[in-house]
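Sample entry copied in:
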Amino acid sequence: MRDDPFWEGFALSADLFDPLCKCIGVLGSDSAAMGTTYACFIYMLDHLNGVITDYDGQRDHGIQSLFFYRWKRMYRLVHALAFFCDPFYSELRLNLTRHIGAHFVELGMGNLRLQCRTALSLMAVGTMNWTALGFSASSSTSACIRRPYSRRTPRYCGPGSSAGVEHQNTTDKRVHTSARNRTGSGKVECQVEMAYNSVTSRCALPPNRQPFEHVIAALWNRDAQVKTGLLDNELLLAMRRQHGDVGADYLEGYIDPVDLMLDDLKLAE
């Protein structure tokens, strides 16, 4: 218990799993809309890339493989469409694209715009009813003109089954009792599906975002991090004095506030 390596490993585990548990909490709540689910996985991937550098390469690869395995189990094209159409996450998408690259926002599923276009085509198959999907065709051109976000957001950002895997984990504990396990695996799976569908049917999107959703939306956005309390305003001003007046939002890479304070202490000495 007095060994430094033990507490270093303990601190690293806390840094690694605390944000992941908070994301899972959002995914298991009524706030788990399609766009929020996509944003949660983006946040988790960014967090993993920042923390697992302290692990060896083999464990690094294992964590990332587990992450993408989990994501592919629940991914649907409408997730990408909801994330793209949700104005709450528009700054997140633009900041990540500018600082890291478009490939990061795609989460290994290909071009984000192509995913959205494919989702719309599948949803309008047969009738091509773009009006029902929140778009209207221009009388002068064949292009689709986007309607205001307020009309599309309720359509694409409902809870639905966006967090099905996390909800199913919750219902597993209620369904998998010793008596029911004796009925056979097939019946147990059917009971899990029925329990999950019952939970999903009662989901109602709350009127306000959860606090951690604001933390997700503030990723790679220094001004937003000040508003959410993640970054002190004085630290932000110090970053801008140190790196110029272009603003901390446009800095390449992540600046740790603790490292910044340590640098100030060294200068004072």
Q: What stands out?
A: Residues 161-202 form one domain. The CA atoms of residues 88 and 217 lie 7 Å apart. The longest strand covers residues 135-137. The two ends are 34 Å apart (CA to CA).
